[in-house]
């Protein structure tokens, strides 16, 4: 019999509604499992047990009266540490913010509560949410439940690890550099980075920050063990649905075009010179392409919507310009000096980072103009195709490596060393122009590690991406529990 904790959130919600299990029993089951399995992976780092138990009791009482709080009534879940949860610190991994106690929930957290969820804790992050590994001096290191010697991804690494291990059925993450997508890829779960602007980021910030997303690409979104759960969570998170328009935040509508998956036109990328992809990942992408062709889906390999080198350069410079804005004066001066000392021909990640950190306004505007061109080219691409499916990262989960700078940490791709930061190319490919992308599992490598891909759609095409992911889950491949989850 499948453990309750490995069922998808929508199935748990159904069982609660049918009175097959109570919200209190469901919460207690997860808390007991957490006590047993969490020490090995250190994914859930903040517990809100008393408040969660009181809310679970209230959920059961409401159901007894015939009341329903929403689609997630009685379902326990966790959220990423970077979201405000009343009575608990929001640190982003910084020791100095352990005293930053939230007085009210982040808006996205409140929307999940309004849908009936019972939030019992928060999951681990890297410092400043700025790594594809998850470790910090406040809560320590999070391990991958498939192999605890390996990373779970980041910055929503605790989120994906907790989901894969069956510690929580649903999670709320955030993504500016694949921070939802890469942990889903490394841990074998689902994640959705929404179209920019449709899920509010209010309450996902440190003290003194009013402009939450100066780059206009950061997104909050769900992670889950089922694509159906992603859709349910997105319906909760986007009510009322809003998007940023010429006159500020305004109500908008999802893109209504909805092609049946079997009639979709799909482009698939296996690899790119900007970030070479290991054959273990490419093999699973090719298996997906073969499945789609057998189903009658029109598949074209190698069709690129934009120039890869330009997309990579624009994304990294804009990303690092956002991080540079929060530097102290001394660090900013050091980065300026480093940028000036570099050769103009230096196209390394380190060079791009220092240049991006210290962009003049004039240079930033010039790069943003390039982004506008990329946005128009993507729009033209989606006049021909419904989806682009491509890698999320260049390898499966790699071994923990917390030494040196990120660009100095190497991963092995097809037998050759590659900076781990090279994978940011795949993060920024859809992200720099705010496109929606759904992370889906592709199965396991011969070494028994999960890999995933991202299904990218047009602006406000989130429902199509989610529907396509649901179809693949039903017809081809879905979540597989790691051995640790079956203990």
Task: Sum up the structure in keywords.
487 residues; alpha+beta; Amidase signature (AS) enzymes; eight-stranded mixed β-sheet; three-stranded mixed β-sheet; 17 strands
Task: Describe the fold and architecture.
There is one protein chain. The protein is globular and about 70 Å long. It has helices at 9-17, 23-41, 49-64, 107-114, 157-164, 181-187, 227-237, 279-294, 308-324, 329-341, 349-357, 361-381, 424-431, 462-475; strands at residues 44-47, 76-80, 118-123, 135-136, 140-141, 170-175, 190-193, 219-224, 242-245, 248-251, 265-268, 298-301, 387-391, 410-413, 416-419, 437-444, 450-456. A hairpin with a 2-residue loop joins strand 9 and strand 10. The two termini are 13 Å apart. Mean pLDDT is 94; it is low at 245-251. The strands form 5 sheets. It has an 8-stranded mixed β-sheet, sandwiched between helices. The protein has a 3-stranded mixed β-sheet with strand order 1-3-2. The chain is built from 14 helices and 17 strands. It is of the alpha+beta class. The protein has one domain (4-263, 399-486): Amidase signature (AS) enzymes. Helix 2 runs antiparallel to helix 3 (49-64), helix 9 (308-324) packs across helix 12 (361-381) and helix 10 packs across helix 11 (349-357).
């Amino acid at each position: 019999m499948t453990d309750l904790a490995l069922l998808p959130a929508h199935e748990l919600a159904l069982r609660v509604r049918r009175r097959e299990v109570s919200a209190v029993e469901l919460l207690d089951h997860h808390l007991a499992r957490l006590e047993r399995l969490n020490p090995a992976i250190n994914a859930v780092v903040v517990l809100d047990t008393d408040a969660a138990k009181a809310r679970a009791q209230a959920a059961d009482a409401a159901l007894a009266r015939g009341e329903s709080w929403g689609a997630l009534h009685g379902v326990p879940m966790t959220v990423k540490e970077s979201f405000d949860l009343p009575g608990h610190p929001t640190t982003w991994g910084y020791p100095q913010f352990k005293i930053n106690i939230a007085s009210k929930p982040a808006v996205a957290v409140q929307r999940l509560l309004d849908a009936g969820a019972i939030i019992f804790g928060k999951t681990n992050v890297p410092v400043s949410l700025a790594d594809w590994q998850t470790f910090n001096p406040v809560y320590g290191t999070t391990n991958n439940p498939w192999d605890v010697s390996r990373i779970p991804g980041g910055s929503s690494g605790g989120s994906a690890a907790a989901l894969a291990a069956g510690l929580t059925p649903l999670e709320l993450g955030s993504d500016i550099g694949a921070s939802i997508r890469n942990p889903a890829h490394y841990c074998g779960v689902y994640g959705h980075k929404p179209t920019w602007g449709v899920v509010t980021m209010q309450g996902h910030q440190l003290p003194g920050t009013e402009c939450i997303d100066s780059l206009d690409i950061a997104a909050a979104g769900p992670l889950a063990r089922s694509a159906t759960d992603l859709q349910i969570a997105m319906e909760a998170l986007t009510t009322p649905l809003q998007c940023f328009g010429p006159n500020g935040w305004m109500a908008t509508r999802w893109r209504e075009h909805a092609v049946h998956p079997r009639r979709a036109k799909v482009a698939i990328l296996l690899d790119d010179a900007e970030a070479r992809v290991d054959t273990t990942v490419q093999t699973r992408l090719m298996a997906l392409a073969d499945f789609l062709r057998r189903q009658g889906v029109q598949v074209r390999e190698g069709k690129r919507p934009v120039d890869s080198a330009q997309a990579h350069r624009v994304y990294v410079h804009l990303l690092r310009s956002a991080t540079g804005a929060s530097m102290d004066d001394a660090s900013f001066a050091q980065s300026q000096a480093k940028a000036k000392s570099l050769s103009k021909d230096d196209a390394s990640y380190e060079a791009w980072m220092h240049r991006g950190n210290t962009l003049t306004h004039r240079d930033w505007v010039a790069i943003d103009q390039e982004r506008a061109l990329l946005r128009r080219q993507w729009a033209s691409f989606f006049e021909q195709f419904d989806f682009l499916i491509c890698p999320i990262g260049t390898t499966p989960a790699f071994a923990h490596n917390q030494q040196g700078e990120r660009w100095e940490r190497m991963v092995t791709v097809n037998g050759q060393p590659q900076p781990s930061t090279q994978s940011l190319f795949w993060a920024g490919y859809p992200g720099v122009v705010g496109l929606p992308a759904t992370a889906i599992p592709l199965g396991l490598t011969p070494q028994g590690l999960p890999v995933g891909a991202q299904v990218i759609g047009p602006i406000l095409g989130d429902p199509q991406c989610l529907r396509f992911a649901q179809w693949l889950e039903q017809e081809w491949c879905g979540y597989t529990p790691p051995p640790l989850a079956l203990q």
